[in-house]
Amino acid sequence: MDHPAYSIRVGHIAGVDSIYGPISHIDVDPLTAGVQNYAPPFVSGGGANTVRTNMQCLPYVVAALGRQADIEVTWGAGGTIASVRDVTNHVNVPFHAIPQAGYGFIGDANGNGRIDWRDFDRLEGVAQAEADLGFCADTLDPSPGAHAFLVNQPVFGKVTVRGASPDGTLAGWTATGSGFGIYINGQAFIFQLSPDSTLGAAVPPPASGTKWTVRQYAGVVAAATNAGTTTPGGYTYTPEPGSPAIPGMRVTFSVQQPTQAATETANVLDSVHTVPDPYYVANALEITANQKVLKFVNLPPQAIIRIYSVSGVLVNVIAHNDPGLGGEATWNLRNRNNQFVASGVYFYHIETPQGHTKIGRFTVVNFAP
After folding, report:
1. Cα–Cα distance for residue pair 309/336, rounded to 1 Å
2. Percent above pLDDT 70 for the chain
3. Nearest to residue 40, comparing CAs of 187, 134, 138, 158?
4. Whole-model pTM?
5. How far is CA 260 from CA 256, 301, 325, in A?
6. From residue 44, how far is each of 23, 47, 55, 124, 151 by CA, in Å?
7. Delimiting residues of CATH 2.60.40.4070 domain(s) in the chain
8. Are 79 and 205 in contact (CB under 8 A)?
9. Which numeric CATH code is attached to 273-365?
10. For a designed S-S bond to 124, which of 23, 147, 175, 342 qualifies (C-beta 3.0 to 4.6 A apart)?
11. Is 61 helix (H, G, I), strand (E, B) or coil?
12. Mean pLDDT value of segment 126-150
């Protein structure tokens, strides 16, 4: 990798002349130090964007789709891609035509005969989002029908990793070689397979079975000196782990033994009571007049609740069994014949499997619908 204070070359592997990627606040043009803007540039507020590097615009839109992982790209026959796999999280990386947590290849979206950084800016979703960023405003966003989409196989052709066009137009951008452009999980790269731009689409692709791996990080790179300039120094990296955008990832775990509630004590039923008390016609817990609700709260995980009339007649029995420690049981104010009970005072008797008991009472003022 080149010195991060100069140019955007991010790697070099066998069979590839150079790999480039957009890096915020870094010179866009690998051949000219201090070039921080495209030509033609993004403009903001009617003037050229001279404060921020245009290399920020794409990362600002898609960086949240990144992850900390090693991504392995396996080549097939004839310059095709056989697979893209996240070998860190053991899942395949899916293809998406619109930039997401996945991969795809860019073609010549702006029609200037070469693959360049502005092609990525025309992607569906990216173009609209960049146009809404203050310092990326007026990005020559094409009409919705002219937005670009990623494809699932490489598009080989002339590439340029230059940031500036000699005459300030897209058509004037000089080709620097031949290769392709790829998007992977919130990052864009231009692979210049050969510095010979005359090869174009005929550039030899990697051999079948070739495996490339990109290691992606999440964090902040800071400069100890000259921060915010084109000559920073004293770099430090601070990781910032976050929730990864990894389609298909599953989290599995095993439980060695069931969760056990604390040992039941003699006062386990002391806090049990009914809600509401008194029950009066209806309450906020109910949805309709035929769905009456009276709750027993602060119950242990298991208990038998018996409800009696004031004359000692068994009205209903509720078997409470809640291993999730919910602590509530609901009575619909119906007796064992499924009829609404009459108004009056009722007693309840609660018993736990360990033999602890409690007797209480509540009042019902009820009018059957």
Report:
1. 12
2. 77
3. 138
4. 0.62
5. 12, 10, 10
6. 20, 6, 15, 21, 31
7. 273-365
8. yes
9. 2.60.40.4070
10. 147
11. helix
12. 73
